[in-house]
Design brief:
Oligomer: single chain
Structural class: mainly alpha
Strand content: under 5%
Number of helices: 8
Number of strands: 0
Largest sheet: none
Length: 145
Amino acid sequence: MAATVTPPSPKSGIAIFGQDLVTESDLDAAIRAGVSSSALRQLQTAWNLTVLELSAALAIPRSTLMQMMRSPKKMTPAESDRLYRFAQVLALAERSIGDRSRALGWLRHPNPVLGSVTPLHALETEIGRQRVIQALGAIAYGGVS
């Protein structure tokens, strides 16, 4: 039986949104309105991610992502939602593993539970995202993943 884990609270990824979001409704409204593209740079810096890692995890072509990061424009609601979902997984990884540096190492290391791909690579799809969340749940509850 797969371990389940409570998803991070709405506040888990909020630091990157640069807004004071208190409720899930606030977060939903911010995503629908489009998040500032500066959130991409903040997430990249906070997690020491490469452009390629960020591009793959968000399913945004590298050239498009780089252009977005240079622009003051807002992201589309779909892009904002992907960014929030990615930030949620990062927060869960940090909480489950206990340290951002170790969580990033885990995210970058091929994982047999995920078909020997890295969790960052698995995050490209929703099914992969769910499998990463399950693996983090196993780690959080003392399993091996």
